[in-house]
Amino acid sequence: MTIDKDGFNPEGPSREKVWRMFDRIAGRYDLLNRLLSFRQDVRWRKKLVQHFPSSKGLQMLDLATGTADVLLSLFKQSENLERGVGIDMAREMLKFGRKKVQKEQKDNQIVLYPADAMYLPFRDNSFHLVTIAFGIRNVLDLNKGLGEMNRVLQKGGRLLVLEFSLPQNRWFRKIYLFYFRKILPVLGGIISGDMFAYNYLNKTVETFPYGEEFCTLMQEAGFSEVKFVPLTFGIASIYIGDKN
Predict the structure, then answer these.
(1) Three-state DSSP string of the chain
(2) Strand order, beta sheet including 153-164
(3) Tens digit of pLDDT for each residue in 19-62?
(4) Closest of 190, 206, 210, 209 to residue 198, by C-alpha
(5) What region, left, alpha or beta, does residue 225 occupy, with left being phi > 0 and alpha being psi -120 to 50 degrees?
(6) What structural domains does the chain harbor?
(7) Which pTM does this prediction carry?
């Protein structure tokens, strides 16, 4: 991964107990996602359904589920989903997620639990589909987390990872990084009341493996047919991998 020489620690900021940060901004998290991404986050989540397995009656697990945006969005778009489980370490985020699930009257299909992606409290081969949106970069041990995702998937199941990446186009990349480093942290800090949270965001994105590098990590964790699909000039990417 190529990172501009801007003084960042190549390991990135500490992810230790980052869920506490998300608890602090839980009340404004959805609003900030919409504003700071110019609603691209909604469009990106909708793209996930295009890569679903074709079978019906899907049992789905969503990691770093937060306020349940992914689960609710996918249940609206797909008739193939039968049940969805969402986990997150941030209990305040889950409180907002449960309210949204109740409002959408999806209580009979969606449940949310506090749990760690590195220690999934589910049996082997439990799910047809595992998703994680904008949360994989916060997993402390990527290899362990990906291994757990592989373990809980059924044979033939699929992992879909939606995560920020960096544009390859030289000029667009410069414009994007200026916004990402200089404007987004200030706006996010003012609106959320937490200056650390949105300084953390851009630093974790820039120091996280993306593109082919992340595909290699998925392959090492046992996934096959691994590929990635860039979104919006490469600002985000969907990573796809199957369990043999």
Answers:
(1) CCCCCCCCCCCCCCCCCCHHHHHHCHHHHHHHHHHHCCCHHHHHHHHHHHHCCCCCCEEEEEECCCCCHHHHHHHHHCCCEEEEEEEECCHHHHHHHHHHHHHCCCCCCEEEEECCCCCCCCCCCCEEEEEEECCHHHCCCHHHHHHHHHHHEEEEEEEEEEEECCCCCHHHHHHHHHHHHHHHHHHHHHHHCCHHHHHHHHHHHHCCCCCHHHHHHHHHCCEEEEEEEEEHHHCEEEEEEEEC
(2) 110-114, 81-88, 58-63, 127-133, 153-164, 236-243, 223-231
(3) 787 888 777 878 777 877 888 888 998 899 999 998 999 999 99
(4) 190
(5) left
(6) 19-243 (3.40.50.150)
(7) 0.89
